[in-house]
Design the sequence.
């Protein structure tokens, strides 16, 4: 592992924070915390923690000794000084005299001694930092250290590698008891540079930020060197079907299996967003003949359990053309997983005091041989975190198995960690938004209405995919919103199919589709050229059909319903002169919307349209508005608000109508009008 310390960067950091009134100790603490946090082989998503003992002034200006320690919820890779709340050190150190301390009392004492009452909760490992005497202390869950220690002979190996340089702490769950034990072990080995916490991770310490960091890198380097020694055992691959099914084909089936109905009459499901990983190393793990053993063996470090559950769900390998068999076998495997999880809960809750409430029995990681490792989440972000941690776990297990056998903490220890209130608090439960866990695709998302619609769906919690003929525009808009942007020519069936395959691969499937792309062609119908009419039909009719077809295929594979939404036009209802080439295909699209309503209602798929008129967009440009209002002797404002309500209709209004229809689970075959009122365009 490379040592990334740079005197120049360190000085720059000190200078940068000095300008904000942050002292050197804390600035350097931020600097090396970020160096450690930026290395995924040391720290994953909120894992690890660091501290510095320093002096600050309280409200009246008196100097007070404090421990600045990583706060819960902060990621080390991007930590800032407020992410290292200051706790009065002396009262914490005094706690070492106690024999026992409850979690509630520990949290209460830590919070009660914060200099800033509004600061985040100090790390669950705060007391360990407080009980050791060193000024700077670093803690990581280094992959290499775990790969060496997560074995039956882990302690022996650690002693061989580290000798007197690092002392060994047996596994104890984080909290007061571990802090006491670490203090005892350190005091018996006062010359050591760090501590190896068996089956958990590593601490290093020093008088300076640099010394603690250097020692972390050196100690981890020793573990890496040892892992590289000798001839590794090859992981024997399992036999896979000759014609393995592809990710885009499997993901929606898998997503459907993992979805649970909340209320079928309301069309409500608890879905997951999926994130697939299928790099070579991860596939070696997923495809291993012994995957059922090593994947069930437990976590590589205790705090992973809140993100990955104690073990993943291992499914059979799917075969092309035989997904029905995969589906049936997977449903049975999931039912068994839930049964096992409930039994695990009962087994360990029997000795828990006070009794715990069971968490949901769903996996957070699914292994599909031949296809990939899937992280599951209530959002794409959560799914990514689960996948990152699961990949880290896979990597550590492969390394441990290469020269030995992986062994985790006991199942009872895993349970204690999973159901520890301080760990669950890290997940910070917030109420879910109405469209959370759903994936929405919007076509023509480079334009004004498409962009506003994607933004509105996202505000309701949906993961969004923006498709546009102009891929750069789609990606630029997606970047603004934090969604996925893809180039797609909706008039080309292959391009549409490829885009939907990419969406299924990225998120596991599709729940909402807004078929919005369109353009207006004009011409007097008796004289218009055939190719103009055909061109318009390609975009204003066939494209809607391609998009709906691709979406319905995925929705039916999921079996959890869905929402098809079409951007219709007033031309379909209230045709205007010279707009035949535009209105005719739009009228066909309105019929298309109803046809989907009829044929896929039984699948829980709703099909509806929004009929909008007179919106500033690519269809109605500023120049057109100017010339039309002038031609009618109206101001631009009066022209735009020339409707029953006398109000200009905006792209955001159209977007809200799409959201309303996506949420309406008992409306199908409907056209929702968003035009400020135009009786000539009212449906009859
Ligand atoms: Zn830890």
Sequence:
């Amino acid at each position: 592992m490379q040592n990334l310390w740079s005197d120049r960067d360190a000085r720059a950091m000190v200078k940068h924070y000095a300008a904000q009134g942050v002292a050197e100790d804390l600035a350097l603490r931020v600097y090396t915390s970020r160096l450690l946090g930026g290395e995924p082989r040391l720290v994953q998503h909120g894992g690890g923690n660091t501290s510095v003992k320093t002096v600050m002034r309280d409200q009246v200006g008196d100097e007070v000794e404090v421990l600045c320690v990583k706060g819960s919820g902060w990621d080390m890779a991007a930590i800032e000084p407020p992410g290292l709340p200051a706790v009065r050190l002396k009262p914490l150190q005094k706690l070492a005299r106690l024999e026992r301390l409850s979690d509630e009392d520990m949290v209460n004492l830590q919070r009660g001694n914060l200099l800033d009452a509004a600061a985040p909760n100090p790390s669950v490992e705060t007391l360990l930092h407080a009980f050791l005497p060193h000024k700077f202390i670093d803690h990581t869950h280094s992959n290499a250290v775990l790969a060496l220690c997560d074995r039956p002979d882990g302690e022996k190996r650690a002693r061989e590698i580290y000798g007197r340089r690092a002392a060994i702490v047996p596994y104890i769950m984080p909290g007061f008891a571990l802090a006491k034990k670490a203090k005892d072990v350190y005091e018996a080995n006062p010359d050591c540079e760090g501590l190896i916490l068996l089956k958990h991770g590593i601490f290093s310490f020093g008088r300076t930020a640099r010394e603690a960091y250097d020692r972390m890198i050196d100690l981890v380097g020793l573990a890496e060197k040892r892992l590289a020694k000798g001839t590794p055992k090859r992981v024997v691959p399992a036999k896979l079907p000759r014609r393995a099914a592809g990710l885009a084909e499997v993901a929606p089936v898998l997503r459907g299996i993992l979805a649970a109905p909340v209320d079928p009459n309301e069309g409500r499901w608890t879905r997951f967003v999926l994130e697939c990983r299928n790099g070579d190393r991860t596939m070696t793990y997923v495809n291993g003949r012994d995957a059922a053993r090593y994947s069930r063996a437990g976590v590589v470090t205790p705090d992973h359990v809140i993100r990955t559950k104690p073990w993943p769900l291992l499914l059979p390998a799917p075969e092309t053309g035989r997904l029905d068999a995969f589906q049936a076998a997977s449903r049975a495997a999931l039912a068994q997983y839930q049964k096992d999880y409930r039994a695990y809960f009962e087994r360990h809750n029997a000795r828990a005091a006070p009794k715990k409430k069971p968490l949901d029995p769903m996996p957070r990681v699914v292994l599909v041989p031949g296809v990939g490792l899937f992280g599951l989440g209530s959002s794409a972000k959560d799914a990514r975190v689960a996948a990152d941690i699961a990949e880290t776990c896979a990597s550590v297990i492969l390394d441990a198995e290469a020269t030995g056998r992986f062994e985790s903490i006991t199942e009872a220890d895993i349970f204690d960690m999973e159901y520890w209130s301080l760990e669950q608090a890290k997940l910070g439960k917030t109420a879910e938004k109405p469209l959370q866990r759903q994936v929405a695709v919007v076509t023509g998302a480079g334009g004004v209405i498409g962009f506003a619609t994607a933004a509105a769906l996202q505000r309701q919690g949906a993961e969004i995919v923006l498709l546009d003929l102009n891929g750069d525009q789609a990606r630029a808009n997606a970047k603004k919103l934090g969604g996925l942007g893809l180039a797609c020519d909706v008039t080309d069936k292959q391009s549409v199919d490829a885009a939907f395959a990419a969406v299924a691969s990225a998120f596991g499937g599709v729940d909402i589709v807004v078929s919005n792309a369109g353009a207006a062609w004009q011409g007097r119908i008796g004289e218009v050229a055939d190719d103009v009419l055909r061109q318009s039909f390609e975009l204003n009719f066939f494209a809607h059909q391609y998009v709906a077809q691709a979406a319905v295929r995925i929705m039916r594979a999921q079996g959890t319903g869905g929402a098809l939404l079409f951007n219709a036009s007033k031309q379909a209802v209230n045709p205007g002169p010279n707009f035949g080439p535009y209105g005719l295909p739009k009228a066909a699209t309105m019929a298309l919307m109803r046809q989907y309503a009829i044929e896929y209602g039984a699948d829980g798929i709703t099909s509806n349209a929004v009929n909008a008129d007179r919106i500033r967009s690519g269809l109605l440009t500023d120049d057109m508005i100017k010339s039309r209002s002038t031609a009618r002797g109206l101001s631009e404002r009066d022209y735009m608000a020339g409707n029953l309500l006398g109000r200009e209709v905006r792209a955001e209004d159209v977007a809200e109508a799409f959201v309303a229809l996506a949420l309406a689970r008992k409306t199908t075959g409907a056209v929702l009008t968003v035009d400020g009122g135009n009786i000539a365009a009212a449906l009859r």
Summary: Residues 125, 139, 141, 200-201 surround zinc ion (CB under 6 Å).
